[in-house]
C-alpha cells in the first residue's frame, strides 16, 4: 500500500504540546484526572500521526498508557510524540509526558506518563490509506522501532489467542 511513498525521518513527526493544569482538570483526590492526560496524549499523538502521514489519521488502539507520577494543578505539562513504527496504513506513536512542578525549585521536568498508540491514516471516506515508511535517524529511534514491533507482535498474538479460546468455548457449548 505504501511502496510508492518516499520515507520520512522520525524527526518530521515530532510534536510537542504544552499546557498548565487547572482546577477543572482534577479528580476527587485533587490531582489531575487520568482521563485528562489520556486526551492530552491522544491529541499530541494524533497531531504526530497526521503530520507523518500528511493527512487525517484516527486512533485505532492504545497499546499501553502508564501513569508514573501524579500531576497537580499548576504543573506545566509537556507531551512529546513521535512516530516510532509504520505499517502499510498504521503507525505506532510513542508519547512521553513530563511535568514541571509549579511549587518546586529547581523544577526539573518529571516523567509522569508514557504511552503507545496505534493510528491509522484514512482517506475522506474513512478508509485506510498508505503511509510513508518512517526512517529511524539514530540508535534511540531504531530501538523504538524494534520495540514497537514487539508490541505489535504481542497485540496480534493476544488477539489470536483470545479468538482461539472463544472458538473453543463455542465448540464446547
Ligand atoms: C481504524 C480503522 C480505520 C481500521 O479500519 P479497517 O477497515 O478495520 O482496517 P483494516 O482491517 O484494513 O486494517 C488497516 C490497518 O489498521 C490496523 N488496525 C486495524 N484495527 C486495529 C486495531 N484495533 N489495533 C491496531 N491496528 C489496527 C491494521 O493492522 C492495518 O494496519 P496496516 O495497514 O499497517 O497493516 C477503523 O477500524 C476505524 O475507523 N475505527 C474507528 C477509529 C476512530 O474513530 N477513532 C477515534 C476514536 S472515537
UniProtKB/TrEMBL annotation:
| Organism from which the protein derives | Paractinoplanes aksuensis
Q: Which InterPro entries match?
A: Cytosol_ACT, HOTDOG_ACOT, HotDog_dom_sf, Thioestr_dom
Listed name of the protein: Acyl-CoA thioesterase
| SUPFAM superfamilies linked to this entry | Thioesterase/thiol ester dehydrase-isomerase
Matching entries from Pfam families are given as: 4HBT
Q: Which UniProt keywords apply?
A: Hydrolase
Task: Locate the transmembrane regions by residue number.
Answer: none
| Source organism superkingdom | Bacteria
Amino acid at each position: 500500500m505504501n511502496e510508492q511513498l518516499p520515507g520520512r525521518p522520525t524527526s518530521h513527526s515530532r510534536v510537542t504540546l504544552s499546557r498548565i493544569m487547572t482546577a477543572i482538570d482534577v479528580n476527587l483526590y485533587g490531582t489531575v484526572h487520568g482521563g485528562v492526560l489520556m486526551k492530552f496524549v491522544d491529541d499530541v499523538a494524533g497531531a504526530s500521526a497526521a503530520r507523518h502521514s500528511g493527512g487525517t489519521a484516527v486512533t485505532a488502539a492504545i497499546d499501553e498508557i502508564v501513569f508514573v507520577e501524579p500531576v497537580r494543578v499548576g504543573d506545566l505539562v509537556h507531551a512529546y510524540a513521535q512516530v516510532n513504527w509504520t505499517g502499510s496504513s498504521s503507525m505506532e506513536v510513542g508519547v512521553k509526558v513530563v511535568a514541571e512542578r509549579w511549587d518546586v525549585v529547581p523544577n526539573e521536568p518529571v516523567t509522569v506518563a508514557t504511552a503507545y498508540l496505534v493510528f491509522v491514516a484514512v482517506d475522506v471516506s474513512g478508509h485506510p490509506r498508505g503511509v510513508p515508511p518512517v526512517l529511524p535517524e539514530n540508535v534511540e529511534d531504531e530501538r523504538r522501532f524494534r520495540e514497537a514491533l514487539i508490541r505489535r507482535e504481542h497485540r496480534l498474538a493476544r488477539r489470536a489467542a483470545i479468538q482461539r479460546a472463544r472458538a473453543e468455548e463455542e465448540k464446547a457449548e
